[in-house]
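To the structural biology subgroup,

Please find below the input and predicted structure for Chromosomal replication initiator protein DnaA, which we are adding to the shared reference set this quarter. The sequence is reproduced verbatim from the submission form. If anyone notices a discrepancy with their own records, reply to this email rather than editing the shared folder directly, so we keep one authoritative version.
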Amino acid sequence: MTNGSGMMWNGEDSLATDMARLESVWAAIRVGLRRDLGARLFDQWLKPAELGDYCPESQTLDIALPSDFAANFVSAQFGDRLRLAWRSANVEVREVRMVRARQAVGPRLLPVAVDAAAPATGSASEPAATHCNFDPRHRFADFVVGDTNRLAFSAAQGVAGRDKPRYCPLFIHGGTGQGKTHLLHAIAAEFSAHSPQDPVLYMSAERFMMEFVNAMRANDTMAFKARLRAARLLLIDDIQFIAGKGSTQEEFLHTVNELIDSGARIVVTADRAPQMLDAIDQRILSRLAGGLVADIQPAALPLRLAILEAKRAVAGDPPVPQPVIDFLASAIRSNVRELEGAFNKLIAYGQLTGRAIDLDFAQSMLADAVRANARRITVDEIQKVCAAHYRIDAAEMRSKRRARAVARPRQVAMYLAKQLTPRSLPEIGRIFGGRDHSTVIHAVRTIEALRQSHPEIDADIRALRRQLEG
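Predicted structure (tokenized):
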């Protein structure tokens, strides 16, 4: 079996040759990183890094670091630089992941999946599938559970367990950085642990679309379909990105139908509930909503505190005092990813500078993040608040009805979306039922004029802004 460049991946001689090539490239990359970053920064974070596993099917290479914290920090600070270096090295590495080092040191070449459409030519013991395209750092044990994510967590465990799940598919929705992708990786890891021979396929919706388009261009859609339909667990992240892509949606629908009929497990995530996804085929939405829909709400204060406590327990020096933990939990409210990133930033700067972490230091270092969180308002929140204020159903914000009792509140919500969020006019129009950007412009101009001539409209806008910003 060969990879894209024709190198053999099976056999001990080949493995040694290919891993030696990766080690050689890694040595050259390390020299360049030390030169570009400086000796102190390199020695602090990248000197301990070693080559980890390599998966030829997904062309994913692991860089192993001593701890989860080091892996997360290097990924955040140097991940793009490392990916560019490997992609520029003329080797078959498409993706680079930073992971915690295994106890047994040394890189491995992971087995390649057998193409379900190809005839069997190898030994009967050849692996049926690879499970190397999910991140082993994201496990159920590392997911901090609270009231806002408990249903999604329990449902994810149910899908990953040995017994047949009660609901299929599982649809998890929530805002950016709330833990949806973490749960997908945890499901994959748990399922693979008890069913190592069952094919698992994890990909983003964008990757699904890209691979399908490439398969059509190469006149090789049969192999693409066979690979998807061979999965016993299919995980698709951010399904909203196939909105408006007719042929991709058709293929996705057929894949979902066949997998469900065959008893396979399917988990899909999105940033919104199925009924709020615009430009997605209704047949897909019906299928996805036919299993279990579980949402992840923004983490409440008790959960944010629990997440920070879990990170403090494994972070090591310098110590983070309780007042700083309380400050972070109160100030960083937008999503869990930003909360963890703020904590990592404090630890990293404390280690690099040798300064103790106290409240003044935290407030100074995170001033920009705190300001951004204070102003973070979503279009969905605006729609709900405006609908409640004008006593209409929130779904009317996206409906086609033009009655004044509905149209005016919708215009107010569009106006506030333009004023209070970074969304572009086309994005706002899409969220309001797929409307054109010119409709949003008209709404903004209309409300601006009404504020000048109708004091009650101006009073409404001021009251709604206070509610949203508070």
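Summary notes: The longest strand covers residues 50-55. The first helix runs from residue 12 to 37.

Regards,
Lab coordination
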